[in-house]
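protien #1 (seq + structre)
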Amino acid sequence: MFAFLQVYSIQAVLPVLMTDFSATEVQAGMIVGATVMAIAIMSPFLGMLSDAVGRKSFIVGALLFLAIPTALIAQSPSMGWLGFFRFMQGLSVPGITVVTIAYIGEEFEGRAVTDLMSFYVSGSVFGGFMGRFLLGHLHEFIGWRQGYYVMAAMTLIGAIWVGKMLPSSRCFEANPNFRSAIQTLGDHLTNRYVVTTSLLGACVLFSLVGCFTFINLHLAKTPYELSTGQLANIFAVYLIGVVITPLSTTLLRRFGAARTVRVAVIVSMIGVLSTLVTPLWGIIVGLAIMSTGVFITQAATISYIAVNVKKGRSLASGLYYMGYYAGGTLGAWLCGLAYARGDWQLTVWLLLIVQVLALLVASFGMIKTKTRAT
């Protein structure tokens, strides 16, 4: 939750930032994409480093570092500096996310891994919601700059809490051999499980970032003209993911990852299409349906890689997140171009094209076995 508190919080105040800094839609998208790009770049490297030095200390240290650029965002004099500090945030996030997935994969086994991965995704979903919700409402009370000081303080509290509550690793085996790590990297790059989940992850975050970044600009315009607080409330649809994701483990056990992902992607496509309606309540329902499909897909892909990859788990998770966040970076950029040229309607069609690609990857790339298979 504390990792994802900062990643997308900026989305709730994008219309305000565009006014304050006289920014274009593409610039606004890349402010979101700056953090996502840094996460994509750092994920495999921090995974390799964690395989060498450990888990818990890495997670706590990354949280402590994350608080620094979060506080500095409040001092941003321009869109460029804002993007730089957002990029700095992203450098630390994989130290939390990638390493936590590896930690779960090492400390637990069997059914517990699938259950815990779904709770992990629920926590990340809740963090994504809380970041947008809090900053949107904080802006209305104290302004977005002061709001980011509050967010930085929350991250520090999170680091202290994790340091106290997270049990130390019992099953971790250090692998400081760089040559061995490179060999493992080569194995992963030709591993069907890793490649397929990375491609699916890219499609998932492309859809999520593209949709939830530019729906804000759409709803800030006439006839809706929603305030930052009202836009923040829209993100309550994220909370559906907190409930749905743990329940998705039942689908995974019964139907397997491949079939579950295909159905979830189709659900997501229906949700995206539904946002083209005019009534605000219809758009909110569409966002809820879309995000439900995305979160089930994410839970299925993370479980799929955790169950099927036994060697170099942290590096495998890092490669998955590199693909995942590379997709998010592309989503922020390409959807920004689409929105600038054809508003929300063209953005929706681009999102649908990417989801069709996800459907093809799930249909032809995923091995049709139950997720508990090894």
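ok now protien #2
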Amino acid sequence: MNIDKFKDRQVIGYMRVSTDEQDMSLQRQALEDAGIDMLSIYSDQMSGKSQKRPGLKSAIKSCLPGAVLVVWKLDRLGRSVKGVLETIETLDKKNVELVSLTENIDTTTPMGKMVMTILLAFAEMERNLISERTKAGLDAKRAREKDWISGPLHGVLSYPKRLEIFTDMWVSGELKTLKDVDILARINEPKITKDGKRVKDFSRQSWNNWKAKGFNRFTPPDFEPID
């Protein structure tokens, strides 16, 4: 592909290799053969996984609306599909066209525009899926916490110091090894809250009610350790 047809546009080249040992000569030669000036080619020597790619950032920043960014292959824009789509979306918002020499993608053409539209649609779908998964995770977390707060462990959750002791036993695995009487003794050790009020003991009945639910399916809610 030759970029002579873009003589009335600003044309920027970008190339990337993952490590210092890899050679950029193949990409550089391809960009130069396409007609891109050496002074208009930006580069990075780092993994496509990295979000901090100064060369790519500078290349996009230098592009004026209507400019054309040329790469040897699409995967130079990012190692993952998500990374490539994010970069394409950035270019689209800035009204910058994209040309990939290897895949023969040219968004200045009707076919290239169609490909771009499909890629952007995939990017939007991925965002929606992530949003749905995040919402589902938060809903599940709230449900778990509600189960805890409304259940017999309310007598533990109401008092931060008790929650800290209880969670320490959870993390260490002692909830499964200690005798009930020893667990209750530890939970009930703090007698006075920070405001000076006496704490009511967590009863054996509450403990038995909670055990009957099966504590293995619960996860302690987030908490701040007490100094």
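The chain has two domains: 4-125, 147-217.
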